[in-house]
Amino acid sequence: MTSNKHFFVLQDPPKAESTEEDLNIVTFRNPATGKSCKYLLRNENRDLYELCCFSEPNRSWFINDTVCSNGKIFVPTRVDPLFLVIPYLEKSCTSKAVPLDQFLVDDEFPHTTKLVNVLAAGAQLSMIADEKKAGDIRAYKFNEEKVMDWLKRKCTRLEKALGVERKFARSHNFVKEEKENEVDVKGEMMHYAHGIISDYLSLELSKKLATVIGLPEEKVVNKRKSTVELEANQIKKIKKEESYETTPIKSVDKKVSARSKALAKAASGTKSISSFFKK
Q1: With contact defined as beta carbons under 8 Å apart, do 197 and 224 qualify?
Q2: Residue 271 CA to chain centroid, in angstroms?
Q3: Residue 230 pLDDT > 50
Q4: What mean pLDDT is reported for the chain?
Q5: Does residue 245 or residue 222 have the better pLDDT?
C-alpha cells in the first residue's frame, strides 16, 4: 500500500523534535469566493492555517532514504478564523442570535464544524457579533458595525506594517526619487492593505470597507477581477511571448558587372566540355 507524501515548510515547527504532530488538511468554503479551499489544522484542531502551494514540473524531493515524487511545496500561513465565520454569521445570524455550533454548518463542506473548536481556542466572536447568554448557552448575532470596525483596525495595522517594510526596502536599495514624482505613501499602503484584507471578504464587504477607510470605489472594483479573467489574460500573454513574428525576406536583385555580361554573351551558342563525352 502506497501513501502520498507532501513537503511542508512550517514557520513554527513542533517544540520537541521527537513529537509526531497530527496535521489535518481540511476543505473549507473560501470566504471571498465561496469555492472550496484547502486549510491546515494543527494542535488538536485549534490552530488554523491556509495552504499556499508552489508547484513546478519535473520536481522531486529526497526525504531521508526515500524519494518523494510529489515536488510541490506547501507553505501554511496563519489566518484569522473570524474571516471564515463572517459569511455564516451574516447569513444565519442577522435577525436573531444563534449558537456557534448551529450556524457553523455547511452541507457542502462538512469540515466547517471543526471551526467551533478553533474559535473556542481563543478567537473572540464578540469582536464581530453581539453575544447573548442564557445559562451555559451562548448565542451570537451579526453586527455589521462591529465587523467594519474590526476590519478597519486590521487595515490600519497592516498599513503600518507595510509602511515599515517599504521604508526598510527604500533605505537598503538607496532609491532616490524626485519630489514631483513622489506619491502619497500612506494612501498607497492603505490601498495595498485593503487589497490584502479583501482577499478574505465578499465583494459587498470589500466595498463597504473601502468606504469606511476612505478609498474610492473604482479601485475596489478594478481590484476584484475574476480568477478566470486573470488566467485568460496570463494565457494570452504567454502565447504572445511564444509567437515570433518573422519578416519575409525580400529578393535582392544582384548587380551584374559589364565584364560578366561580356563573358555571358561570348559563351552563348557554345557547348560545354561534358557534351563531348556523351554518346
Answers
A1: no
A2: 79
A3: no
A4: 76
A5: 222
Q: Are 201 and 79 in contact (CB under 8 A)?
A: no
Mean pLDDT computed over 256-275: 61
Average pLDDT over residues 89-116: 93
Question: Do 157 and 115 form a contact (C-beta atoms < 8 A)?
Answer: no
Measuring CA to CA, how many Å separate 164 from each of 34, 75, 161, 190?
33, 24, 5, 13
| Helical axes 203-213 vs 144-173, angle rounded to 10° | 70
**Cell representation of residue 30:** 473560501
For 86, the grid coordinates are 463572517
* Residue that wins the pLDDT comparison between 155 and 279: 155
Q: For residue 214, is it left (φ>0), alpha (ψ between -120 and 50) or beta?
A: left
How many residues in total does the chain contain? 279
pLDDT at residue 136 in the model:
86
| DSSP per position, 17-47 | TT-----EEEEEE-TTT-SEEEEEEETTTTE
